[in-house]
Design goal:
2 copies of one chain form a homodimer.
Chain A: H1 12-27, H2 34-41, H3 45-51, H4 54-64, H5 69-76, H6 84-97, H7 99-112, H8 116-137, H9 145-165, H10 176-192
Helix pairs in contact in A: 1-2, 1-4, 1-7, 2-3, 4-7, 5-8, 6-9, 6-10, 8-9, 9-10
């Protein structure tokens, strides 16, 4: 174990995460290795394995830090049914506006365009887990769920690309609240367009 | 001039474009050079300059080939005002469903996430030129244009990312018409939400 660090050292986990963030941001998701992160953090690779369940687990730790995405989204969605669209948009912006979280997420987004495996991971993670919570929050009927998810996914991915990558104005300079006011009704329209 | 090709050779321009498509697809937009394309096509770099106005011009030629994007979009938008949203979505899908066009466009999209200059080029090109035509087609009032473009951009970029990169189902397997039926009303909602 390099640099005298031990598994019990309270800061070791945080230092591995800080190193992983730098590695993900510099190299992108697919070219970052657990071994490289361990080297950058000055610890043994076995210690990275001890704390995190593989590269996906390490990546999730980089964006989650002080919260769990699924639990935070569940809290954000505790609003009246007609405000779920705005709550979703506000949640996406709150996560991506935080530079510590944005940097590894941008690395993942870069890898999505070149790596089918990362694309599948993001698709399953976002559609399978997170959007599923949103569909539950407005009680989308089972038969409408795949189609509604297909409508909602472009809203989320398009917002991220337009605000943080393409930096389209005025979207890029708006406050989180302004973005939720602008795009919330569109997300709500997607969620409830088949209401009787 | 390598390989005996001349500026007057009718196929030379087409062969440069074919080589450029392969280069853009393999290397991405920012790592493709006019010199490399010339080498791959077996022509002198000066000839590439002769036919195309720099890398941007060559790139546009790769996706335009038998049509000009702005003119094709103008034709697609000749529909009643309440069908402009579907016409826009149908147009985006018709361009991206063509594998010859998609391959260089995907290369550009990959570069967008890593290169601020390419992001600016796409932002100006798409927002400044193409979305502008869409806003004209529904007569969005001047004061609403920036905000409406900020709403519309995520629709287009999100559709492309979700269907062609993340391959979210059922969106990825739908026909062009089904996508226009699904997302057209959302685009229309973005375009006309401030109608009195």
């Amino acid at each position: 174990m390099a640099a005298g660090r031990r598994a019990g050292d309270p800061d070791t986990r945080g230092e591995i995460i800080a190193a992983a963030r730098r590695e993900f941001a510099e190299k992108g998701f697919d070219r970052t290795s657990l071994r490289g992160v361990a080297r950058a953090a000055g610890v043994d690779a076995a210690l990275v394995h001890h704390y995190f369940d593989g590269k996906n687990g390490l990546f999730l730790a980089c964006i989650q830090v002080d919260f769990r995405v699924d639990q935070a989204l569940a809290r954000a969605l505790r609003v009246p049914r007609d405000q779920v669209g705005s709550a979703l948009i506000g949640f996406v912006v709150s996560v991506w506006d935080d530079p510590d979280r944005r940097s590894p997420l941008l690395a993942l987004l870069r890898s999505v365009t070149t790596n089918a495996e990362v694309a599948a991971m993001m698709r399953e993670g976002v559609v399978g887990t997170l959007l599923s919570q949103v569909l539950d929050a407005v009680q989308v009927p089972a038969g409408r769920r795949p189609e509604t998810a297909s409508l909602l996914m472009p809203q989320v991915v398009g917002l991220i690309m337009s605000r943080y990558v393409l930096r389209v104005e005025p979207l890029a300079s708006m406050s989180a609240e302004e973005v939720a006011d602008l795009m919330g009704p569109v997300a709500q329209f997607c969620l409830t367009r088949h209401d009787a």
